[in-house]
Structures are given as C-alpha cells and as structure tokens.
Amino acid sequence: MMFKLTRRQTLAAFSAMAPMATWSPDVQAATPRDALVIAKSIDDTITLDPGECYELTGIEIDTNLYDRILRYEAEDLTKMVGGVAESWTVSADGKTYTFKIRAGLKFHSGNPVTAEDAAWSLQRVVIMNKTSGFLLTQLGWDKNNVKDLVKASGDTLTAVVPAGFAPTLVLNLMTSIVASVVDKKVALANEKDGDHGNAWLKTNSAGSGAYKLVAWKPNESITLEAFPGFRMGAPKLKRVIMRHLPEPGAQRLALEKGDIDVARSLTPDQLTPIKANKDIKVESFAGANNWYAIMNLKHGPFADVRVRKAVKMLIDYQAMANTFLKDRFFVHQTFLPLGYFGATAYNPFKLDVAGAKKLLAEAGFPNGFEVKLSANTNDPFPQIAQAIQATLAMGGIKATIASGDAKQVIGEIRGRTFQMALISWAPDYFDPHTNADFFVNGADLSDPPKARTGPWRASWLIPELTADMLKAARELDGKKREAMYVELQKRVTDEGPYVWMFQNNWVIAMRSNLRGYPKGLFEDLFFYRTISKV
Amino acid sequence: MARRLAAPLRRLGGVVFSVILTFLGLTAVTFVIGRFMPIDPVISIVGDKASTEVYDRVYKELGLDQPVVVQYATYLSKVVRGEFGNSVMTARPVLEDVWRVFPATMELASLALIIGVLVGVPMGVIAATNRGRVVDQIVRFMSLLGYSMPVFWLGLVGLLLFYAKLGWVEGPGRLDVAFDDMVPTITGLITIDAILAGEDEVFFNALGHLILPASILGYLSLAYIARMTRSFMLAQLEQEYILAALAKGLSPWRVVWVHALGNVWVQLITVVALTFGSLLEGAVLTETVFAWPGLGLYMKNSLFAADLNAVLGATLLIGTIYIFLNMLSDIVYTLVDPRAREPS
Known about the structure:
The complex is a heterodimer. Chain A is an alpha+beta fold. Among the domains of chain A are: 66-189, Alpha-Beta Complex (Dipeptide-binding Protein, domain 1), CATH 3.90.76; 290-504, Dipeptide-binding Protein, domain 3 (Roll). Helices cover 31% and strands 21% of the residues of chain A. In chain A, the strands form four sheets. In chain A, strands 1, 8, 9, 10, 11, 12, 13, 14, 15, 16 and 17 form an eleven-stranded mixed sheet that branches. Chain A has a four-stranded antiparallel sheet with strand order 4-5-7-6. A two-stranded antiparallel sheet of chain A has the order 2-3. Chain B has two domains: 2-80, no CATH class; 96-341, MetI-like fold, CATH 1.10.3720.10. Chain B is 76% helix and 0% strand.
C-alpha cells in the first residue's frame, strides 16, 4: 500500500520540522571595554584559599587577589621587591628575617594590612599543613613552634629560620603563594571548627591584591573586580573574567569573533592561520616548565648509567622542537629552567644512534630491551611519546606506549610501578631549591618516604649529591651558590634517571587592542593589573 | 474499605521497593567502579607534590584506609541522613553542585527534545508514507548521519558556520560576559529566568547561546525518533483498519496523521521518554565543545578526578530522573491508551 500526500501536505509537514529556521538574532561580538575575558580550562581549580591552593589556575587567580610579603612585580619580573613589606633585613647568620610592613595599606574589606595579618597568614599555612605547607615547614617550622618563630610586633614581622638557609631561598619563599597576606579579621569571622577560615576562603577572598573575587563558578567562570585601593594604584581594567573554554577550536572561534580577549590553549594548527588575522596578535615568551622522561632504576637495564645515557642519545630533541613542538617548546636539558638563578644552557645530548648502540653493547644490551613508556593523553605528550618510540627503536629499544589520564600516570610514578614515563614539572617558587629539592633529594629510598621526590620515584640512591644539594640550599654566598647549582645540574643531566627534553614557551593569542600583557615565567607572575585596551 | 486500599498500597510498596533496589544497585556499581579506577582520589585533592604526611592524612580523611564494603556502608548511612558530602573538585556540597549544573542540562535537553520531536516525528511519518521513495531515502540518510556523525566534530563545524561565519548564533557558554549575573536565579533555566525578570536582551542572548548546541543534540535525537516513528508507522499502515478507513473515503492525510499516528503515539512515548533521559544524563562532548556547564561535564570531571561523592550524587540524580521518566511514561501511556486502563 502506498500513501501519497499532496505536495502541499508534504510542505506543511516539512514546515513543522523547521521551527527554528527563522531564527536570526542580531549577534554582536566584542567584550566590554573595561573587562578582560580570558579563555582557558579552569577545571583544575579546587580551592582559592592561598593557604592551600596549589593548582595552576588557582595560583594565577590568587596572584591577583592577594598581595604577598615580597614580590616580583609586573614592571620588572626579574627583580625582588617589597609587597606588603616595605623593607627587610637578614641577620648575619642568615637565621633571622625582619620585615617592616608598609603603613596605610588596606584589605578589600577596608581593614588595615598589619604585621599581625602577615604573621598569622604564615602561621596558618604551617598549622593547616595542606599541600603547599611543605614550602614553609622545610624551614624548620611546625605547628608547635611556628607561633614562636614567626611573630608580629608593631609594624614589624620577624621570622626565625633555625636551620639556616640561603637568604635568597627564604626571601624567594616570601614571594610565593604561601606568603599571601590574608585579612585575619575577615577569615576568623568566617572560621568554622577552628579551620582558620579555610572552608570559607576556598570560595571567597580576603586579600589586598589588585583584584577581589566576585564569583568562582566551577567549570564556568571566575570573575574578579578591580580593587581601586591597591597599593600600586587601581588596575587598568575593572573586571577580569576567566571563562572555562577547554576546547582549543572553540577558543579560536571565540577569539576571532571578539567574544574573548585572550586564548590560552591554542595548538599549532590554530595558531598558524590565526597569525594572518590583523585583529589578533600572538605573543610568545619563556615559561618555567620542564618536560622530561623519568626512568625507573628498578627496571633492570636502567640501573646501568650507560643505558641511561644511551636512552638520552636515542632521542631527537631538535627534530621535535622544530616540528610539532615549534614555538611552544625549546630544547633544554637541565632541571632548572632558563630564567632561574643558577640556570645553565647545558644541552649535551642529541640523537646519536651509533654512540648509543655502543653504550648499550658495553652495558650488555647489544640487542636493546623492552620497556613500557607511560604517557598521558594530553597534547603534546602522545606525539612526544611516538617520536621517542621511533628513535629508541633505532637503538633496538622496543618501547610500548601506555596511554592514560594524567592522574593515572602520576599514580604509576608515585607508586614506583612505572618503567619509563613522560611528565612535566612546574616549579613552586622562584629559587633553584624548588627544583633541586625535588630532583636531587635521594639519600633515603625507604618506603614510605618522607616525600616522594624524583630520586625516590626512580629508585636513584644519591646520598652524596643530596648532601651537595642541601649545601647549596644553605650557602650564604650568592656567587658560590650559583656555581654549585650549575655543577649539580650537569651531574644530574649526565648520570640521572631523567631525560631532560624541553622548556615551555607560553603562546598567548590575544586581540590586538590589548596592551601590557606581562611575560611571566609562571603563574605567580601572571598579573592582570597592567593589561589595558586601546 | 481496607480491602479496597490494600491493592494500591501493595502497588505503592512494590514501586518503593523497586526504587530502593535500583538506587542500591546504582550506588553499589558506581562505588565499586569509582574505587577500582586507576586514579588516586587523594592526588586529585593534594596534587603530586604533597608530602607523605599530607597524603596519608587526606587518605584517612577520605576513609580510604577502610575496606570498600565499610566505605560503601558509611556512604549509604550518610545518604540516608541526607548528607551527600562535599565535592573535592568544587569545594562545595554535592547537592548544591548538582542543583547548580542540572538546570543548564535541563534547558539544553528540553529544547533538544522539542526539536527532536517536532522534526523527527514528521520525518518518520513522511518516510513511512513514502516507503522506498526518494523522500524515504533522504530521511533514512539523514537519520544515519545523525547516528554516525561525531558530535564533537558536528559541534565545531556548527560553531564555525553559524557562529563564526554567519553570525546567526552566539558562541560557547550560556551567556555573554556582559549579561552575566543580570537576572536573579529562580529556576536556573536562564531563558525562563530572563522572561520572569522581564529582561528581553538577556533572553535573546541566552537563546542565541542555547540554540546551536540544542539543535545539534536535537539532530542526534531526531535521528532515533525519526527511525522509530518510521518503523512504528509502517507497522500501523499495514493494519486493516487503515484500509477500512481509506475504503470509507477518508482522506489519506487524515488517515496518516490522525488515525495511524494517533496509535503510534503510545509507542513513541517510551521512545521520547528514554531519549529525554539520555539527553538529561548529559551530553559530555556537546557540553565540552560549547563550554556548557551542565551535568555531563560535571560528571566527566568528577569521574576523572575520582571525586566519588560528586559522581555518586550525580548518578543518584540520573537514577531518579530515569525512574521518574519511566513512571511518567507509564502514566501518560495509561492516559493515551484506553486499553491500558481496562482491568485485565
């Protein structure tokens, strides 16, 4: 049986199927002139309390919400200056630090910023001892002694570091997120069960930074509003909105339409065509993240330093940097990123198949061996893994790539169940000890460890190098200290379980009417207050 | 009297029992999957750099030192008391989170379903009445495309065409920055809230943001609805009463759209209800491309962070939705089909 509807009936039916065909709103793009809209993924944000925050988005936001005891300011990102502290002195033995707090500073609440606020802020980090707590507890402070060692008196904050560290190390810690000064009165007014205001501060702010928090809507946006009473003057833009826009393709379209001002996660295939657009400019500057592979010495072959060297010679660093990593990364083979005190451009390894084969033969692996290479699925880890797999095979090393979520790969590394893994590292503060303490602290490999440092993860027992690293942390003479780090890096690069590969560049695409985007190495230096629109 | 009440009470008891059993099954399976996933929930909270001391403390705070059965029992006892816990990813109570993200998905899914039904059903009917002809082939081809096209790609191409090139719709997100927080949240559905607040501009902006992701999701659902409608209609059109109606001189239009389709609705209700359920469950990829802060995205992020409280809370919500939709379709079924009302 065949039913035949008339043409008019069929048309009527189709017209019912297109109720939205007439939809054509007058869409207007462009962000407000007094607001900055940044697009990136913000799903790593789990707290904005500067006493515990340790996720990259959170640190960046807190950099703008809270002033710190000392700072590297946007005007000169290489020079340490006072934050809430006007001046500071260090005793001759390097153990007592005295900070004079500026007069007349105000929190967003209108409360005055005092030395007591600064002391309390440091104390709460140590007492709460969350993820970032180790930054201060490494100075010998704990919940029992911190109130005696960190004190306020009038306009002066005094901090005693009994263990005695290099002054640059301690002062640099005072520029890190744990030295954010929290409004004690506001935090305590919102305290619950003696939590030092922690639960409240996760989603609210009580600082004296250039911006104050309006709202953090998880997976949606973080909105900041300018604080006119900021110590260095009112920020140029009244509002900053960080929008959760994880998909790079969508970021590019929104940037081209003018719905966002800054796109932070564009990949090369989006960056190349966008460069032709005169409404958009791309700024690129060095970051401080290291991208490296770690070898587990418990996996037989890697216990031999000759095998580790051979692996380092079976990677074509430059080819990767010239192709799929172009603009985003450059070859850098030491644990301190360029831009750091003590950093050195020491890049001894390049693809040398014959040399690697010789070393493998000497080590008893003339035909290579098999290894599992764990890598997370985030760009560009998969491409790096494939490139390494191909060049390792030239030396007879058969690598099987095991892809997984980033947390899964980290879990394997922390559990020491990996064989070889690709991973990246972001430093915690602006002093070489931040990376040295992680990558060269390996005097004790017992389980459970005090800290799951790089050597512990790789089962690399190095009591002598560890002692040298700790000496460098305590060296009072700047020149000597710098030379010690250079030496340490060379030894770790040559012998260690790490295959240092790249340092990152931040590649930021933005509307061309934007000015003053600061070129910070890492999130502690991502300031918004200097950005303006013309 | 007592006897008259006994049957409905027994029925109610049966429903309550099956609901409880469903929830227990849902939470048990989710709990086990969540706990055996190769992701460490402690790392999600403390990060990779935490000291062993901090790691161990949080490990204990989460109750992970207890056997899984004990953890599950503890969780259940809290849920019974109405405590769903906090999400570690958002630092907020799970109920508050779910209440915040669900309206975004509800708004998206509802419009998608409306599009799916309004377009899918006529498509299915036209295909069935033109079986084997060009129109039928076109409808089948479009349905097949809807089934096989990766939504991620479709979303991006949609954005490129309708947002970037033609400028017909707004971009990702639920609202433009300029309109953020302009209307008070009453229902959580921004379009409705804007109407309630009398803010035309906000309404049109929200609709501009909503229309593209909803159309894409609607297209995917219409593919299913059109196919099912076609097959239901084909079965109806073979029936003798159709022949009788035509023989009596009724117009083919009336026979198809009133008589045949009238009988198909009964079956379509289940299809539509299930489609709505799957749309509400969250379209993770659509929500990712369009930066739509809905339930799908929330669940995905929670799952990847092994944020079990959040995953379980959202799972229970989805379970509730499915149970509710099933019950609703049963009720509507009874209303639409007189045979279902007759005593057996």
